[in-house]
Amino acid sequence: MDTPNKIDILIVGGGPIGLACGIEAKKAGLSYVILEKGCLVNSLYNYPANMTFFSTSEKLEIGGVPFISHGDKPTRSEALEYYRRVQQSWELKVNLYEKVEKVTPGTDTRFQIKSSKATYNADSVIVATGFYDKPNLMNIPGEDLPKVKHYYDEPHPYANQRVLVVGAANSSVDVALETYRKGAEVTMVVREEEISSRVKYWVRPDIDNRIKEGSIKAYFKSEMIEIKEHEVIIKTSEGLKSIPNDFVMAMTGYQPDFSFLQNIGIELCKDETRKPMHNEETYETNIAGLYLAGVVCGGMITTKWFIENSREHAEIVIRQIQGEKEVTKVN
Questions:
Q1: 187 forms bridges with which residues in the sheet?
Q2: pLDDT of 107 above 70
Q3: Mean pLDDT of all residues in 238-267
Q4: Residue 170 resides in a domain
Q5: What whole-number distance in Å separates Cα of residue 184 and Cα of residue 175?
Q6: Are 257 and 89 within 8 A, CB to CB?
Q7: What is the number of H-type helices and E-type strands within the chain?
Q8: What is the pLDDT of residues 146-161, one digit of tens each?
């Protein structure tokens, strides 16, 4: 008797790497479905509206579909259009707004997966959920106030407002420059001695010059202590300072949904990286038949994997799954 919703592979996450896994599964003749809790390439959709990628367009390509951008570096809107075209060109089976809630050992197949809309049975599961789901919290008083934002969209709402930006990497610098140019009074709070060396090379001179001329105020070797309704308290090398404030843009980075990984049985490294346990050659986790793909592999090391260097995960994982199925048939 056929098992309802029986498939070879269930892919969790409809981002670029999840789509790449679907493409490779389709090329290998394996049945699959991609489940995405939000819209197509949901993480990219939640990037700032005016964001420009560090990578060139060809390094973001998947499935042999050309990515043509107007500039040297593609924009968020161009990427959204490109990955929509990839999904349509390959006719990928992507179920949107369908959240995976539970993954358990199945009866007729290796895994039973319960989503917000259905139950599936799959021989293998690939988790390609990225790391943009949960912000790294500062864990200070007042962080839950409505004026504190961990995600940034566009600069217009902050015109003529007193904006404090936490952090010194690409996201922080983009927010500081964009809101400043829309008329915000911008202050940056940076733990380190200077702006991060990872900031995009074509942007670095801009932020350095704005700080040097005093257009953007920056407190280095400083940290947030408390957020209040109309001010913030920061700790600097000169002691505590109170700064009048309307909005706090906490660009403190993001992390994978570790609770989801643990709930499906994936073990995490016990050090500060919290890296999900997996074979670094096959990307199989501590659970046989359950694989990782993409930036989720790095845990808290969110600067190791990107679209351009984790696209190959899809080929490796599908090759491994296909090999397992062939061995099973022979036996």
A1: 164, 217
A2: no
A3: 95
A4: yes
A5: 11
A6: no
A7: 8, 17
A8: 999 999 999 999 999 9
Nearest to 28 by CA among 330, 317, 329, 331: 317
Please report, as a single letter, which amino acid is at residue 45.
Answer: Y
Show the domain range for 43.
6-134+254-330
Final residue belonging to a domain, choices 250, 278, 300:
250
Residue 304: both structure tokens together: 């190791």
Do 230 and 244 contact (CB within 8 A), yes or no? yes
- Give yes or no: residues 12 and 121 share one domain: yes
Q: Which of these, 204, 203, 248, lies nearest to 225 by C-alpha position? A: 248
Q: Which residues contact 3 (CB under 8 A, 6 or more apart)?
A: 108, 109, 121
CA neighbor of 92 nearest in space, from 38, 35, 175? 35
Write the CB contacts of 199 (distance below 8 Å, at least 6 apart in sequence): 168, 169, 170, 173, 207
Q: What angle do CA 182, 144, 234 make, to 5 degrees?
A: 70
State mean pLDDT over 237-243.
95
Q: CA dist 26 to 22, 33, 90, 192, 213, Å?
A: 6, 10, 9, 47, 55
- Cα distances (angstroms) measured from residue 170 to each of 74, 81, 238, 292: 16, 23, 27, 26
Average pLDDT over residues 202-208: 95
3-state secondary structure of 144: coil
Contacts of 16 (CB under 8 A, 6+ apart): 41, 44, 60, 62, 83, 294, 307, 311
Domain of 236: which CATH number? 3.50.50.60
68, 51: one domain: yes
Is the pTM value of this prediction over 0.85? yes
Residue 226 contacts by C-beta under 8 Å, 6 or more apart in sequence?
A: 140, 141, 142, 232, 233
